[in-house]
Design brief:
With 502 residues, the protein is of the alpha/beta class. The chain is built from 20 helices and 11 strands. Helix 10 (241-248) packs across helix 11 (253-266) and helix 14 runs parallel beside helix 15 (345-358). It is elongated and about 85 Å long.
């Protein structure tokens, strides 16, 4: 497989470049927003698309038949044949798959018109079904068995008239090409075997009992793992304006395809031509897939302790100052700041400066005992905010060390701070590594530096932690957004993220 990386200002021009370089059958592997130049400063964000073309497609050898049989088929294929023969071959292979998939779909009951408030459950149930993934993958595999294309390269173009089942079977049955008939029978048997495997999986999945609410959330994470393994060609994206729109916003390819299918079922043909109606429907759909949990400080009777954790350079200290300033504006000055970031002198000094400006106490601790003493010293405060040193997600020792500070008996809420400019696969690795800290919420920073914000949705579908805050700039506290599912959906679909100061 040949893999190439393309850079462009937008999705449309990127797809055009990919099609010119790799052809219409190229596969989109991933998309992300990057910045060039020194440290990414003062540079315009660009879209980086990773695409590939399968150059290892088997031609001389098949996994299901010998080279000798294909050699015989090539010789026979060069003789004049009737135009229906190619279509007969394809239908004999594909019809059993289509019949099985059709019957499997009918068992799910007659589909009624979906509503936006029910889409999240439907989407997760379909995505989590191993049968649906296997059925689609088996259909694709059966439709692309490694039969040499040269066998049919000299057939005349088929007539647009759809042949009957008898007409489809007749050409192959009447020909003397016994090798081809044998090969077709072998493929038909393989299709039946695959259908049998799907049936067994379907029966096994039907015996699974309902899970608890906690398990339901876990199944949501696992249900989306299969979504990201499929691929889609450039031509499919360019030919589907809904798909192109969602992918251009940074939504994962398979998630975009699922949402696009739901939108088509929800809207009429006339409504689909209206950009305003389509965008509104997408926003309503996205908000049902997003979970938020912003801290509610009003009328609190107990002390709140919040610690910000995460990798280096994501803006933990600045975000902590924004939360403190926001609480100071809307509630009271009953706040204490604590930092255990003794690795960087600048971080300690930065927090002390914020403390002086807001007239708040700042404590620096270097071990868990000192943290315990600081918490007791500020037990009269309504809110305690704890800043931590940036930890590499690959350094398990540092994360374990941080875990000793944030022990469960301290009753500290852990918010994982992530930069929206980080690559999606790296974000998922960070989430997995910091999971041992029992993260309660997720905070996304630097969304003003992103060209697209689909990563907010992509991460939500694979992460059990709701979003508590989003930051979109350096200003304290103005650039701290208290969000709702609707607000995040609107940000994802907005035309220009830019610096969205409010």
């Amino acid at each position: 497989m040949q893999v190439r990386v393309f850079q462009s200002t937008d999705m449309a021009s990127g797809l055009k470049m990919i099609k010119q370089e790799l052809g219409p059958d190229a596969l989109i592997l991933s998309t992300k927003t990057i910045r060039n130049g020194k440290l990414g400063l003062l540079s315009k964000p660009i879209l980086e698309i990773t695409a590939a073309i399968d150059t290892d497609y088997p031609q001389e050898k098949s996994a299901y038949s010998s080279t000798e049989r294909f050699s015989k088929q090539r010789t026979i294929a060069k003789q004049p044949q009737r135009p229906q023969e190619t279509r007969s071959f394809n239908h004999i292979i594909n019809d059993p798959v289509q019949q099985f998939l059709g019957s499997h779909a009918s068992n799910q009951g007659n589909k009624s018109q979906k509503k936006n408030n029910g889409f999240k459950a439907d989407y997760l149930n379909v995505a989590s079904s191993p049968v649906s993934h296997l059925a689609e993958e088996d259909e694709n595999q059966c439709a692309s068995f490694p039969v040499d294309a040269e066998c049919f390269s000299e057939y005349p173009k088929q007539s647009p008239q759809e042949p009957t089942s008898q007409q489809r079977a007749k050409p192959i049955a009447s020909t003397d090409n016994t090798g081809l008939v044998s090969e077709v029978n072998e493929l038909k048997q393989l299709v039946k075997d695959l259908a049998g495997q799907i049936t067994v999986l379907s029966q096994n999945s039907s015996t699974v009992t309902d899970s608890s609410p906690t398990d339901s959330r876990t199944s949501k994470i696992k249900s989306t793992e299969g979504l990201f393994s499929k691929r889609i060609t450039v031509d499919q994206i360019q030919g589907d304006h809904l798909l192109s729109l969602l992918i251009g916003k940074g939504v994962n390819v398979e998630t975009a395809r699922t949402i696009a299918g739901f939108i088509r079922e929800s809207l009429t043909e006339q409504e689909l031509t209206s950009t305003e109606i389509v965008t509104k429907t997408i926003i309503e759909t996205l908000q049902n897939l997003i979970e938020v949990n912003p801290p509610v400080f009003s009328d609190q009777s107990e002390q709140r302790r919040i610690a910000l954790v995460g990798p280096t350079g994501v803006g933990k200290t600045t975000t902590l100052a924004k939360i403190a300033a926001s609480y100071l504006q809307h509630h009271s000055n009953s706040i204490a700041l604590i930092t255990i970031d003794t690795y960087r002198i600048a971080a300690v000094e930065q927090l002390k400066v914020y403390g002086e400006i807001m007239h708040l106490p700042v404590d620096v601790v270097i071990n868990p005992d000192q943290l315990n003493q600081a918490l007791k010293r500020h037990q009269d405060k309504a809110l305690i905010l704890i800043d931590t040193a940036g930890r590499s997600p690959r350094d398990s020792y540092c994360i374990d060390e941080l875990s000793s500070f944030l022990a469960p008996e301290y009753n500290i809420e852990k918010h994982l701070v992530l930069s929206a400019t980080t690559r999606e696969n790296e974000i998922l690795q960070i989430i997995n590594q910091f999971a041992k800290l029992e993260i309660a919420n997720t905070i996304f920073t630097k969304i003003d530096e992103c060209l697209s914000l689909g990563i907010l949705l992509n991460t939500q579908l694979q992460n059990s932690n709701p979003i508590s805050y989003i930051t979109n700039g350096q200003r304290v506290p103005e650039d701290l957004l208290e969000i709702t599912p609707r607000k995040i959906a609107e940000l994802i679909m907005s035309q220009d993220q830019g610096s969205m100061h409010e």
